[in-house]
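Posting this for the archive.
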Amino acid sequence: MTPPRTTAPESSPTMTALAVTTGVILGWVVGGWAAPMFVVLGVLVVGVSEPDLRERRIPNRALLLAAPLLAAALLVAAIATGEPSHAAAAVGWAAFTAALFYVAAVAVPGGLGMGDVKLLAIAGVPLGWLGSDAVLGAAALGFAAAGVAGLLARRRGRWRTGVPFAPFYAGGVVLVVLLSGATS
């Protein structure tokens, strides 16, 4: 059993800079009133990747900070654009993602952790703003990349405790948003 951690994992300055840069780029790509959601999304998914790689856990502190920021940004975007249906779809996709991956995490112990489930659910809000393809595409790309990495790692005798999911999901999120070229 792993002893409880007494301090929150800290990201390196380089990783923090990468997370902020990614958030700004995603916000710029999406543009408009939805941009703040994607700034938060980029900072979140890249920011939690380092602790997940290092400790195989996603800090709740990051998730608990991102959730209300995304909710506020979603509300502002929905009001400013006059698109409450986008907000409803975003919340719906977040709920769907949470339910689906919660079941997957419970069904396959040792696979996804609850931090991964919470990350997928929270990231489902801005991705849901873009539509179902973004939500499902980011998850599919993340799982595919993690699967390939897991196979390669097993072959080389590394990552015996499992493959961290957040870094691969971050790649899927960034790729999907960049390819969407959305302007909200």
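The chain has eight helices and no strands. The mean pLDDT is 89.
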